[in-house]
Every structure is written in structure tokens, then in C-alpha cells.
Amino acid sequence: MRRMAALLVCFAMLAGLVVSGHAEAAQEPIDTWRQVDPADVQIGKSYLVVSEHGALSNAQATIKTPGDVTGDTQVGMASKPVTIEGDLITSEVTDDMIWQFGRGANTAAASGGLGEGPGYYVLNNAPGAGAGKEPLRRESSFNAQHAPLNTTGAAINGNQQSMLLHVLDEEEGTVSLYIWGGDNQWNFALTSTEDGFTSKSRAANTTSAAQLLEQINETPALRLYEPNVTAGVQHSVMASTGANGSISPSSLTGHVWVNDGEDVTFTFNPAFGFEVDTVTVNGDEVTVTDNTYTIENVTASGTTIHATFKAAANAGELPFTVYNDIFSVGNVTTAAIIDLGEGNAANLADLSEDMFTAAAKNTRLDGTTDIFDGFRNITRVYVNNAPEPLGYLSPAPGSEDLVTDTPASGRYIILEFEFWDAYGYTSGAMVSGNLQNAFSAILNYRINVDREIKLTDGSTITPRFTQAAVVNPSLDKFVPDQTNPGGTGSMDILISLDESWEEQGPLPLFIYNHGGGRGGPAGDFFAPMATANGAAVLSKRQLENPGKYNAHIIATQNHTNNQENNEALIAYVKKLAAEGKVDLNRVYMSGFSMGSGYTVGFYKRNPEFLAAIIPLTGQTVVWPTTEEVNANPKLTKTAIWAHAHINDTTTGNLWREYFTTGAGLYLNANANILETNKAFNFPYYGYDWTPHETEAQVFSNLLGQSDTIFRHGPSQETYAEKNIFDWLFAQSRNQDTGSLLPGDVNNDNRVSVGDLALVTKAYGKTSSSPDWDEVKIYDINEDGKIDIEDLIVLARLILQ
Prior knowledge:
alpha+beta, 9-stranded antiparallel β-sheet, 15 helices
């Protein structure tokens, strides 16, 4: 009971029922919560959200969703059981069950009785794993009927964060909370289950207002509860601050509730190394005494008080760099790196995670559209003698290059951020906001510390941290360009030129085509790199393995799948070759989804140009027919390694059938049909994407790691313990078939049953094909045709 009383006093202070100054003593702490009329819900007040399964709690949970998503589970929010007697909740209420309703930001047009008004931001400030100050939101559903629900996601999007309220029964006071994207858009209802709360759509695609209403009426009804006290007439004061300090009392939404006619005293709390600068009330500057100010005789809502802070006179400037890294899922902010300055160093023993806080207010390139506004969790603080992380601890057990025995002292202080957990990327981690958003960002980070920084020479610094730069070693190698500026078929690209060509001569070229919707707006050249992108991953592989993958890289942007576009790209590449930079026998291409369609389309139209392709799923992919291959044998000389999930609409089954029946047409065709999209290596550790999202799985797994139901091709065994780029860089259009072992059809330096199978499938192909060089590898006895004699010769070779 004493613990409960303390909790309730804290809640009363949060809600403004207890204020400092001349406010009267608080009423007795509440021990019950009463159901509230939905018509009486107010911005800035606190509520419980309760269904038949319990109260919505700010902790992540795994929700069973059979048949709707890969693995039949989804991220959601936990529920806690409550005891209801009549209209009262009489059981314990903990802070993670208390939600504050702020004004939402829904902008979609209303339709069919739904979507009216801005809605509510539903916020919870409970501490602990899976919690945060972010609004309750649904993340992208990846074409599934359930969408992840959490308070620690990344992207700020008004129509994904704003919960709109629909009254189900006025007499019973039952409601539904739903997320509205507009009629025939992505719409979801907050749905409680025995496992917790999730967001559910009527269908695994866009839904109409009528369909959403059906979904709302089928889901368990919700009831809202408020503290069971009578406070009389109250008014709200909006309390806020700038960076580097706080104000109290305040609340998640900034509302402080004051009884009619009473006074309220605010205290300003500068961060270490800062002091109060200005305080304004209703926009007019006021005089502050001992970091406090009292607003007297509050008789109406709408008064505002705002404080700003400035660096203390004795504070010294310390610059820091925001460090971004590339993982297969996209561009991620992983650390902040503080520079103590030339000749200065700090001891590891004098630093700890609890000294520092880090916050960010990130926007799109317009500088006004928020992507993230909040704090980042710091998982590790250490020193280094270079401005770079020493591997990553987060999440456990850490990356392979993690240096656990960090230096005892160093010039640079590394603040490592949490960026991934069992539920995916964490709040604020992805630069673009989340996997489905393709745009660059302006990253504005702020670091504070609660004490002086000790240096190794015994001196101390009262720091004022200032952001000096944002770096990403993998992406900083790229520069924007166009394939045919002002001309036909021109396309924006990013290109990374590997300087080693000057010593080694012409190098391979890797071209990557993004998925649909991930090209970003015109002029935002790095947008495709913000989400999963194979070009970015290869760039990181080059940094991790110096000399192993020497190659130039092109990332295309907003590509058009036609020959004019292809010819402009080919001309651009041939110009690089004429300059001695590119080896035209080792030009590779890959793409995801729509980019996969572009890749196969380019290959079919220009079969002589590419040494190898890696298509990753894609409903727009149309593979060459037998007739097309027979008419143009050059198609058989491009090596292929295709990947698709068996449940990705019809793609998986179609590709499985194609590579079962038609792959014998090719010299080197490989295909993996995936059972899951699990990625098994750092930082994913078995994280499973929904069926369409194949990029992270392909680019982070070893080729033999993937969960597959079908494997085809001559390279499966040889490359099982290698990654896709190892296979890719082994391919070339100028491989000398004369230097192969007699009968080594699949070019693996041995004569095997696999060779016999390939020739068997190619039985009947003759030298009447347009290019004899393309087919002679099948003609084992070199008599100008492929027949039973070739099979006999090959069988003898195998037996030998």
C-alpha cells in the first residue's frame, strides 16, 4: 500500500493535481480508476486503455498472428490484467499502464464516418526495455494484415502515430482506437488479443472506410479510465523548454493542470554546464528568481511558459561527430564520437554510460518535417585513439570486430547507441526513419553530461558539446552523377570509383537497382541508400576486406525499365571502360523487387553486357522463354543467382517452377527459394522479415545459411560458406572454355554428375545456334552437335 501511495502521488504530480507554490495541499491519493465518458476525453490528461484482455501496457510483446505474416508472429504491446468492479478499476495501476493523450497529427481526409480530426498522440513515459517517450504507433505492415505496434519505432508520421477514437456504444462508453491513412489506404484498428495489443487491418492491402468499420466492430471493445478523484474546475498551463534543460512540473504533452484561481511555481533545471537564458510567459520575457517563476491566479487554460538555456561561462567547446554505419537493412546511426582535442585524452576508468545523455531532432531535407525527436539509448562508452567505433556491443553478443579490451585511454570518447533489438531497429536508429522510407535526413544530435570530463593529465573540462559533422564511411565514397545529362534515357546515379584501378587496371563494376518506392524524391541523391541497398552493403564489404572486392559501384535512382534508359547506362559504363577504369567482362547487376524487374529486363535486352545478375524477388520479373534463349544463346552466358521467398505472392512458386524446368538452358544458373527471410549474422541473429523483404537476408547471410525449400545450380555447394559477393566476383564473360577440364561444363574444376545433368538438359542444342562460341562447351566431342555421344564421353570422364 505504501508503494501504491507513492506511485499515485507521482501520478498526481504528473497530472498537475499537486503543484508547488501556493497551490493547496493535494487530496488523498487515489486507489481506484473510474470509467470516463469518451466525450470527456481531454488533451493532456492521463488515461488507462482497457479491453477484455487487460490494460494496454508500454512494453513490447510478441503477438501470434497465424497466417498473416512470416513466422505467424508480430511485434505488439503487452497487456496487464486488471480487476474491474462496476465502473471502477480496483487493482494496482503501474506507471507503464498510464497513457497521456496529446494532440495528434492526422492529415488524411475523412470518409465514411472515419478519420475526422487530428486524433491523439498516445504517450507513455514508463522506463525500461521497450519503453520510450515516442507516441504509440504502427509500423509498416509489409503487405500483412497485422502491423507492428510499439512506442520505440523510428519514423515520425502523423498518419501512423495518430490514434483516432471511434465511439462504439455511447451508453456503455466503449470505443475503438484506429490508425487512419484515408479511404482505400493503409488503415488499422488497435486490437487486443490474449498475447497483447496489435494493429490489425481487414485485408493484407489497402482498406476502405467500410472495411475498417467492419474491422473495428469485430475487435474487442476498449474502455478508457481516469483517476477516481474530483478535482473541481482545472485549467492547463503549457510548460516547455529548449535544449539543454528541463522544466518542472510538466508532462509528456506539456500540460500542467492547476485548480481554478490557484498559483503554480515552475522550476528550471539546466543541464550540467548550462544556465537559464530566457523565460517567457505568453511570449513575454519575465524575471526569474533562483531558477523559479510563479504564475499566479490561473483562471483559464492556454497560458504558456517557455525556458531556454545557454552554455555556462566556464564551459569549453568539445566537437563531436555523428557516426552512421551500413547494415543490410539500411543506413543506421550507431555512435557519437567526441574529440577531446590534440594532445588530450581521457581514461576509460573515468567514464560510464550513466554520465551521458544523447538526444536528436532529425528532419528531412526540408528542415521542418520531423523524422525523429527524442533520446537515444547509450549502451557503451569507451575511448579510442581513432575517431571510429571498435565494433558494437549492441545487441549482444556483439559484432565480430568488437574489441572488448578497449584502450585504457584515448583522445576520442565513443558513445555507442542501441540500434537493434529482438524486435528490429530501435527508436531513432535508421537515418530514414524506417525500412520503408527512402529519403536523406538532416541529423541534429545533442549530447549532455552530468559532470566534468577528467583528462589523463589531471585537469578537467566542463564541456559544451557541439556537433561538427555526420559521417558514413561506406556512403561517403559515393558522388551523384547522371548517365546522360540532358539526353535520352538519362538517370540519376550514385557512383563510387575505386582508386585502385590506377595501379591494377580496369576493375569490375557492380550496379544495384533499388526496390519500388525506395528511389526517393528527385534531387535527394542518397535516398536509395537510406534503406536496404546492395550497393551500400558492397561498399561496406570493401572497407571490411581491403583488396578483396576491388570494384566500382553504381546505385541507380528512379530507374526506368526500357531500352533508352539501358542504352544511356551502357554508354556511361563504356565511357568508364574507355578511360581504363572498368573491365567490361566483369559488369554485374542486382536489384530488389522493382529493381529485380529492371535487372532481368536489362539482361534480356542486352545479354552480351552482363557477366552475372542477382535478382531478388519481384513480381515484375519476366524470365526468358525457351524460345528466346534458343534464338539468342548469349542469354546463357550470363551467370544467375536468383532469390525469392516462397510466400512472396506468386513470385516464389513461379521462380521455383522456372528454375526446375528451364534452368538447363543456362551455363550457370542458381536459384534459392526461401522458406523464411531470416538473417542470422550480426546484428540480426535470426530476425525474420516478411516474405517480400529479401535484401537483408541475402546480403547478410552466407549462401548456405538461408532457410530454403529449393536450391538449384552448380554453385550451391562451392559457395555455401561464402557470401553472395564472393560468388559474384568469380564470374566473368571471358572465361576461357579451352582451359577447362574436358567435360567440366559448370566450370568448377572437376567433372561431376552435375556436368552430366547440365548436358542432359541441354540435349538437342546444335551448332546451328547464332554463336557457336556460346554452345561449344556442351559439345564434348566437338563434332558440331550435342548428342548422346557427348553424354557417353562425359560419363566416361566422370567414371575416370
